[in-house]
């Protein structure tokens, strides 16, 4: 008869190290590794997407700020100066239209153009703003300058704001009324202010207000009061007495 110890059958058999992992253990390890890898990729994708959205938002804000400052400087220094186009025809001092893709939105002449290199030109510059509905980048607002005020060819336009889904413009006259265009006016007449409402894709509308030239300075409407230089009178017959000269005082 074979003798066995008292604990025989109650202790698990020892497994040799050379046997390795079982198939179930390998599958569990692979599942855990796949879950951790997926979580890492998801977090990385979220960080990259958030960074791209933040960069796009900052670029949008920067373009809006640049456009506002540029238009503010241009319109604030607008001058009432009639110019000539490249074909020689006369152009009014300020020409403002509604939204038309084939014509400039605003045309005017501004002063204060710095001349650091002492070039043979005046300090006046012709400015035009365009709203392009077609072309690369989609609907956009552009700025175009002309080196000479009379008879020169305009330069290449510069893109200011892209992805513009809607744009409205109005011109304020001297009575305070907002007009949809500024065309049937005098050759030297200019609006007092310009209002621009810009709507971009998936963004709220932004209203920009600009003062044109001396529009911030109201015109003189009250008569100037003349201060009398002679003796002060009180009524038609009374006159303020003047003290007699004192004897012995020179020049009295």
From TrEMBL:
Residues 242-252 have a biased composition (Pro residues). It is a single-pass membrane protein. SUPFAM superfamilies: Pili subunits (SSF54523). The chain crosses the membrane at residues 21-44. GO terms for biological process: protein secretion by the type II secretion system. One of its GO terms (cellular component) is plasma membrane. Belongs to the GSP J family. This is Type II secretion system protein J. It comes from Sphingobium subterraneum.
